[in-house]
Fold:
Amino acid sequence: MNAKRRVASPLCSRSDWEPAVGGDGLIPDWMNLGVLFVGDDLYVTLCNGPARRFVYSWPEGVDRVRLDDCFPVRSEEYRLLTQIVRGRRDLCGWLGPWETGGQLRHVVLDAKRVDRPGRTGIHVVFRDLGDIVALEHELLRSDKLATAAKMAAGIAHEIRNPLTTVKGFLQLFEQQFAQLEMGAELEYTRLMLTEVERVNALVEELLVLAKPDTSVKSLCRVDEMLAAISPVVEAEANARGVDYTWDAAELLEVVGDAELMKQVFLNLARNALEAMEDGGRLKISAYRSGRWVCVDVSDTGPGIPFYQFDKIFDTFYTTKQSGTGLGLAICQKIVTEHGGEIRVSSKGYGSTFSVLLPARQEC
Structure:
Protein backbone atom coordinates (compact mmCIF):
# COMPACT_ATOMS: atom_id res chain seq x y z
CA MET A 1 0.00 0.00 0.00
CA ASN A 2 1.45 3.32 -1.06
CA ALA A 3 1.82 5.99 1.61
CA LYS A 4 -0.01 9.23 0.93
CA ARG A 5 2.21 12.21 0.23
CA ARG A 6 1.61 14.99 2.75
CA VAL A 7 0.79 18.34 1.15
CA ALA A 8 2.82 21.29 2.35
CA SER A 9 0.95 23.83 4.45
CA PRO A 10 2.18 27.26 5.42
CA LEU A 11 0.65 26.65 8.84
CA CYS A 12 2.81 23.64 9.62
CA SER A 13 6.12 23.55 11.43
CA ARG A 14 9.38 23.52 9.48
CA SER A 15 9.73 19.74 9.70
CA ASP A 16 6.23 19.28 8.26
CA TRP A 17 7.07 21.35 5.17
CA GLU A 18 10.13 19.35 4.14
CA PRO A 19 8.42 16.25 2.64
CA ALA A 20 6.35 18.37 0.29
CA VAL A 21 8.59 21.37 -0.35
CA GLY A 22 12.00 19.91 0.09
CA GLY A 23 15.25 21.72 0.77
CA ASP A 24 15.05 24.12 3.69
CA GLY A 25 11.26 23.72 3.87
CA LEU A 26 10.48 27.41 3.50
CA ILE A 27 7.73 28.85 1.33
CA PRO A 28 9.39 30.42 -1.75
CA ASP A 29 9.70 34.19 -1.71
CA TRP A 30 8.07 34.53 -5.13
CA MET A 31 4.74 33.35 -3.65
CA ASN A 32 4.42 36.74 -1.89
CA LEU A 33 3.47 35.08 1.40
CA GLY A 34 5.06 36.30 4.61
CA VAL A 35 5.47 33.64 7.29
CA LEU A 36 6.61 34.14 10.88
CA PHE A 37 6.44 32.19 14.11
CA VAL A 38 5.42 33.83 17.40
CA GLY A 39 6.22 31.71 20.42
CA ASP A 40 4.31 31.63 23.69
CA ASP A 41 7.28 33.53 25.15
CA LEU A 42 6.44 36.33 22.63
CA TYR A 43 9.66 35.85 20.68
CA VAL A 44 9.34 36.12 16.90
CA THR A 45 11.14 34.14 14.19
CA LEU A 46 10.99 35.10 10.53
CA CYS A 47 10.36 32.00 8.42
CA ASN A 48 10.97 33.53 4.99
CA GLY A 49 12.17 36.71 3.28
CA PRO A 50 8.81 38.42 2.55
CA ALA A 51 7.92 38.24 6.25
CA ARG A 52 10.17 41.28 6.82
CA ARG A 53 7.61 43.46 5.05
CA PHE A 54 5.02 42.69 7.73
CA VAL A 55 7.03 43.83 10.77
CA TYR A 56 7.90 47.38 11.80
CA SER A 57 11.61 46.67 12.16
CA TRP A 58 14.02 43.78 12.33
CA PRO A 59 17.66 44.00 13.50
CA GLU A 60 20.22 42.84 10.96
CA GLY A 61 21.91 39.53 11.64
CA VAL A 62 19.35 38.41 14.22
CA ASP A 63 17.12 35.36 13.75
CA ARG A 64 14.87 35.75 16.77
CA VAL A 65 13.66 38.87 18.60
CA ARG A 66 10.99 39.85 21.10
CA LEU A 67 7.59 40.82 19.72
CA ASP A 68 7.84 44.30 21.24
CA ASP A 69 11.13 44.82 19.37
CA CYS A 70 9.48 44.45 15.97
CA PHE A 71 6.02 45.90 16.78
CA PRO A 72 5.22 48.93 18.97
CA VAL A 73 3.37 47.71 22.04
CA ARG A 74 0.60 50.27 21.47
CA SER A 75 0.01 49.19 17.88
CA GLU A 76 -3.05 47.25 16.76
CA GLU A 77 -0.74 44.70 15.10
CA TYR A 78 0.98 43.93 18.43
CA ARG A 79 -2.38 43.69 20.18
CA LEU A 80 -3.77 41.23 17.61
CA LEU A 81 -0.75 38.90 17.64
CA THR A 82 -0.64 38.95 21.43
CA GLN A 83 -4.33 38.06 21.65
CA ILE A 84 -3.89 35.15 19.24
CA VAL A 85 -0.92 33.75 21.18
CA ARG A 86 -2.49 34.14 24.60
CA GLY A 87 -5.84 32.88 23.36
CA ARG A 88 -4.12 29.71 22.13
CA ARG A 89 -6.40 29.62 19.13
CA ASP A 90 -6.27 29.42 15.35
CA LEU A 91 -7.33 32.25 13.09
CA CYS A 92 -8.49 31.75 9.53
CA GLY A 93 -9.07 34.37 6.85
CA TRP A 94 -8.71 37.51 8.97
CA LEU A 95 -8.91 40.47 6.59
CA GLY A 96 -7.88 43.95 7.59
CA PRO A 97 -5.36 46.79 7.46
CA TRP A 98 -1.81 46.10 8.60
CA GLU A 99 0.50 49.07 9.17
CA THR A 100 4.27 48.64 9.24
CA GLY A 101 6.67 51.54 9.37
CA GLY A 102 4.11 54.06 8.18
CA GLN A 103 2.99 51.94 5.21
CA LEU A 104 -0.58 50.67 5.31
CA ARG A 105 -1.27 47.30 3.72
CA HIS A 106 -4.42 45.24 3.42
CA VAL A 107 -3.72 41.63 4.27
CA VAL A 108 -5.34 38.26 4.73
CA LEU A 109 -3.93 36.66 7.87
CA ASP A 110 -4.05 33.02 8.94
CA ALA A 111 -2.67 31.69 12.22
CA LYS A 112 -2.16 28.07 13.23
CA ARG A 113 -1.47 26.91 16.77
CA VAL A 114 1.63 24.72 17.33
CA ASP A 115 1.98 22.64 20.51
CA ARG A 116 5.09 20.48 20.42
CA PRO A 117 7.90 19.83 22.86
CA GLY A 118 10.23 22.81 22.70
CA ARG A 119 8.04 24.65 20.18
CA THR A 120 4.77 26.20 21.29
CA GLY A 121 3.18 29.24 19.69
CA ILE A 122 1.59 30.24 16.39
CA HIS A 123 2.61 30.21 12.76
CA VAL A 124 1.28 33.34 11.06
CA VAL A 125 0.88 33.63 7.30
CA PHE A 126 0.35 37.02 5.62
CA ARG A 127 -0.89 37.57 2.09
CA ASP A 128 -0.57 41.14 0.89
CA LEU A 129 -3.62 42.05 -1.21
CA GLY A 130 -1.64 44.85 -2.81
CA ASP A 131 -3.44 47.24 -5.12
CA ILE A 132 -6.68 45.25 -5.24
CA VAL A 133 -8.13 46.64 -2.02
CA ALA A 134 -6.67 50.09 -2.68
CA LEU A 135 -8.37 50.16 -6.08
CA GLU A 136 -11.69 49.01 -4.60
CA HIS A 137 -11.52 51.70 -1.94
CA GLU A 138 -10.63 54.36 -4.50
CA LEU A 139 -13.55 53.40 -6.73
CA LEU A 140 -15.92 53.38 -3.75
CA ARG A 141 -14.61 56.75 -2.57
CA SER A 142 -14.94 58.22 -6.06
CA ASP A 143 -18.53 56.98 -6.25
CA LYS A 144 -19.34 58.49 -2.85
CA LEU A 145 -17.73 61.77 -3.87
CA ALA A 146 -19.71 61.90 -7.12
CA THR A 147 -22.95 61.25 -5.23
CA ALA A 148 -22.10 63.92 -2.67
CA ALA A 149 -21.24 66.38 -5.45
CA LYS A 150 -24.63 65.93 -7.12
CA MET A 151 -26.41 66.35 -3.82
CA ALA A 152 -24.27 69.35 -2.89
CA ALA A 153 -24.98 71.14 -6.16
CA GLY A 154 -28.72 71.02 -5.57
CA ILE A 155 -28.73 71.71 -1.84
CA ALA A 156 -26.17 74.52 -1.88
CA HIS A 157 -28.03 76.66 -4.39
CA GLU A 158 -31.35 76.14 -2.62
CA ILE A 159 -29.81 77.19 0.70
CA ARG A 160 -27.79 80.12 -0.58
CA ASN A 161 -30.72 82.28 -1.77
CA PRO A 162 -32.76 82.34 1.48
CA LEU A 163 -29.53 82.50 3.46
CA THR A 164 -28.55 85.71 1.68
CA THR A 165 -31.94 87.22 2.49
CA VAL A 166 -31.69 86.27 6.18
CA LYS A 167 -28.17 87.64 6.41
CA GLY A 168 -29.23 90.95 4.84
CA PHE A 169 -32.06 91.51 7.32
CA LEU A 170 -29.86 90.55 10.28
CA GLN A 171 -27.23 93.06 9.21
CA LEU A 172 -29.97 95.72 9.01
CA PHE A 173 -31.17 94.79 12.52
CA GLU A 174 -27.58 94.96 13.75
CA GLN A 175 -27.23 98.56 12.55
CA GLN A 176 -30.55 99.64 14.05
CA PHE A 177 -29.93 97.95 17.42
CA ALA A 178 -26.49 99.56 17.57
CA GLN A 179 -27.97 103.02 16.89
CA LEU A 180 -30.68 102.50 19.53
CA GLU A 181 -28.14 101.10 22.01
CA MET A 182 -30.22 97.96 22.49
CA GLY A 183 -27.41 95.82 23.91
CA ALA A 184 -29.20 92.51 24.42
CA GLU A 185 -30.87 92.57 21.00
CA LEU A 186 -27.57 93.55 19.38
CA GLU A 187 -25.79 90.63 21.04
CA TYR A 188 -28.47 88.16 19.91
CA THR A 189 -28.33 89.50 16.35
CA ARG A 190 -24.55 89.17 16.16
CA LEU A 191 -24.82 85.62 17.47
CA MET A 192 -27.30 84.79 14.70
CA LEU A 193 -25.00 86.38 12.11
CA THR A 194 -22.16 84.18 13.36
CA GLU A 195 -24.30 81.08 12.90
CA VAL A 196 -25.38 82.26 9.44
CA GLU A 197 -21.69 82.59 8.51
CA ARG A 198 -21.12 79.01 9.65
CA VAL A 199 -23.92 77.80 7.39
CA ASN A 200 -22.55 79.92 4.56
CA ALA A 201 -19.10 78.37 5.01
CA LEU A 202 -20.70 74.92 4.78
CA VAL A 203 -22.45 75.94 1.57
CA GLU A 204 -19.13 77.11 0.13
CA GLU A 205 -17.56 73.74 0.96
CA LEU A 206 -20.45 71.91 -0.69
CA LEU A 207 -19.99 74.01 -3.81
CA VAL A 208 -16.28 73.13 -3.93
CA LEU A 209 -17.24 69.44 -4.01
CA ALA A 210 -19.83 70.06 -6.72
CA LYS A 211 -17.64 72.15 -9.02
CA PRO A 212 -15.76 70.48 -11.87
CA ASP A 213 -12.03 71.04 -12.10
CA THR A 214 -11.75 74.68 -13.22
CA SER A 215 -8.41 75.36 -11.52
CA VAL A 216 -5.92 77.59 -13.30
CA LYS A 217 -2.61 75.77 -13.14
CA SER A 218 0.79 77.40 -13.38
CA LEU A 219 4.31 76.79 -12.12
CA CYS A 220 4.30 77.13 -8.31
CA ARG A 221 7.07 77.07 -5.73
CA VAL A 222 6.17 75.03 -2.67
CA ASP A 223 8.26 77.13 -0.27
CA GLU A 224 6.39 80.27 -1.36
CA MET A 225 3.01 78.61 -0.75
CA LEU A 226 4.05 77.45 2.71
CA ALA A 227 5.46 80.88 3.52
CA ALA A 228 2.13 82.45 2.52
CA ILE A 229 0.08 80.34 4.96
CA SER A 230 2.69 80.40 7.72
CA PRO A 231 1.49 83.60 9.50
CA VAL A 232 -2.05 82.21 9.79
CA VAL A 233 -0.89 78.80 11.02
CA GLU A 234 1.59 80.34 13.45
CA ALA A 235 -1.06 82.62 14.98
CA GLU A 236 -3.48 79.72 15.50
CA ALA A 237 -0.67 77.53 16.86
CA ASN A 238 0.34 80.17 19.40
CA ALA A 239 -3.27 80.49 20.54
CA ARG A 240 -3.35 76.74 21.21
CA GLY A 241 0.08 76.51 22.83
CA VAL A 242 1.51 74.50 19.93
CA ASP A 243 5.10 74.79 18.72
CA TYR A 244 5.01 75.30 14.94
CA THR A 245 7.90 74.94 12.49
CA TRP A 246 8.17 74.49 8.76
CA ASP A 247 10.92 73.89 6.24
CA ALA A 248 11.11 73.31 2.50
CA ALA A 249 13.93 72.41 0.19
CA GLU A 250 14.75 75.11 -2.32
CA LEU A 251 13.35 75.09 -5.86
CA LEU A 252 10.60 72.57 -5.23
CA GLU A 253 8.22 73.32 -8.08
CA VAL A 254 4.89 71.82 -9.08
CA VAL A 255 2.32 72.70 -11.71
CA GLY A 256 -0.95 73.58 -10.04
CA ASP A 257 -3.36 76.16 -8.72
CA ALA A 258 -1.47 77.92 -5.93
CA GLU A 259 -4.59 79.14 -4.12
CA LEU A 260 -6.16 75.67 -4.04
CA MET A 261 -2.94 74.05 -2.88
CA LYS A 262 -2.56 76.62 -0.09
CA GLN A 263 -6.11 75.73 0.96
CA VAL A 264 -5.07 72.06 1.19
CA PHE A 265 -1.99 72.78 3.32
CA LEU A 266 -3.93 75.18 5.55
CA ASN A 267 -6.77 72.68 6.08
CA LEU A 268 -4.35 69.90 7.01
CA ALA A 269 -2.48 72.22 9.39
CA ARG A 270 -5.72 73.27 11.08
CA ASN A 271 -6.80 69.65 11.45
CA ALA A 272 -3.46 68.91 13.11
CA LEU A 273 -3.85 71.85 15.50
CA GLU A 274 -7.36 70.77 16.46
CA ALA A 275 -6.03 67.28 17.26
CA MET A 276 -3.66 68.71 19.89
CA GLU A 277 -5.92 69.93 22.67
CA ASP A 278 -3.14 70.15 25.27
CA GLY A 279 -0.39 71.65 23.12
CA GLY A 280 2.24 69.83 21.14
CA ARG A 281 4.33 70.23 17.99
CA LEU A 282 3.25 70.87 14.42
CA LYS A 283 5.77 70.54 11.62
CA ILE A 284 5.36 70.97 7.88
CA SER A 285 8.20 69.62 5.73
CA ALA A 286 8.54 69.72 1.95
CA TYR A 287 11.08 67.65 0.05
CA ARG A 288 11.67 65.77 -3.20
CA SER A 289 11.16 62.01 -3.33
CA GLY A 290 11.72 60.53 -6.77
CA ARG A 291 9.17 61.94 -9.17
CA TRP A 292 7.11 63.41 -6.33
CA VAL A 293 7.20 66.58 -4.31
CA CYS A 294 6.11 65.58 -0.79
CA VAL A 295 4.64 67.89 1.83
CA ASP A 296 4.34 66.25 5.26
CA VAL A 297 2.06 67.76 7.91
CA SER A 298 2.95 66.08 11.22
CA ASP A 299 1.49 66.54 14.69
CA THR A 300 2.00 65.03 18.13
CA GLY A 301 -1.67 64.47 18.86
CA PRO A 302 -3.31 61.22 19.99
CA GLY A 303 -3.03 59.64 16.54
CA ILE A 304 -5.59 57.98 14.29
CA PRO A 305 -6.76 54.38 14.89
CA PHE A 306 -5.98 52.15 11.93
CA TYR A 307 -9.66 51.25 11.50
CA GLN A 308 -10.42 54.89 10.63
CA PHE A 309 -7.80 55.16 7.88
CA ASP A 310 -10.26 54.14 5.18
CA LYS A 311 -13.02 56.45 6.46
CA ILE A 312 -11.40 59.80 7.18
CA PHE A 313 -11.54 60.90 3.53
CA ASP A 314 -15.19 59.93 3.16
CA THR A 315 -17.62 62.80 2.66
CA PHE A 316 -19.44 63.83 5.86
CA TYR A 317 -17.36 61.46 8.03
CA THR A 318 -15.99 63.29 11.07
CA THR A 319 -14.99 62.59 14.67
CA LYS A 320 -15.28 66.25 15.70
CA GLN A 321 -18.34 67.55 17.49
CA SER A 322 -18.43 70.69 15.33
CA GLY A 323 -16.97 69.16 12.17
CA THR A 324 -18.74 68.84 8.82
CA GLY A 325 -16.74 65.93 7.44
CA LEU A 326 -15.95 67.85 4.25
CA GLY A 327 -12.44 69.18 4.89
CA LEU A 328 -10.41 66.07 4.05
CA ALA A 329 -12.75 65.12 1.21
CA ILE A 330 -12.15 68.53 -0.36
CA CYS A 331 -8.38 68.24 0.18
CA GLN A 332 -8.34 64.86 -1.53
CA LYS A 333 -10.44 66.14 -4.43
CA ILE A 334 -8.06 69.05 -5.02
CA VAL A 335 -4.92 66.91 -4.77
CA THR A 336 -6.37 64.23 -7.06
CA GLU A 337 -7.22 66.87 -9.67
CA HIS A 338 -3.55 67.88 -9.53
CA GLY A 339 -2.46 64.31 -10.31
CA GLY A 340 -1.36 63.59 -6.74
CA GLU A 341 -2.49 61.70 -3.67
CA ILE A 342 -2.71 62.07 0.09
CA ARG A 343 -1.32 59.43 2.39
CA VAL A 344 -1.77 59.17 6.14
CA SER A 345 0.27 57.36 8.76
CA SER A 346 -0.15 57.10 12.51
CA LYS A 347 1.63 54.90 15.01
CA GLY A 348 -0.66 55.41 17.97
CA TYR A 349 1.00 58.71 18.87
CA GLY A 350 0.92 61.55 16.39
CA SER A 351 -0.16 61.56 12.76
CA THR A 352 1.39 62.56 9.44
CA PHE A 353 -0.58 63.54 6.35
CA SER A 354 1.62 63.45 3.27
CA VAL A 355 0.61 65.33 0.12
CA LEU A 356 2.34 63.89 -2.94
CA LEU A 357 2.35 66.04 -6.08
CA PRO A 358 4.05 65.34 -9.40
CA ALA A 359 7.31 67.27 -9.49
CA ARG A 360 7.97 69.57 -12.41
CA GLN A 361 9.94 67.59 -14.96
CA GLU A 362 13.27 69.09 -15.95
CA CYS A 363 13.71 69.74 -19.64
Q: What stands out?
A: The two ends are 74 Å apart (CA to CA).
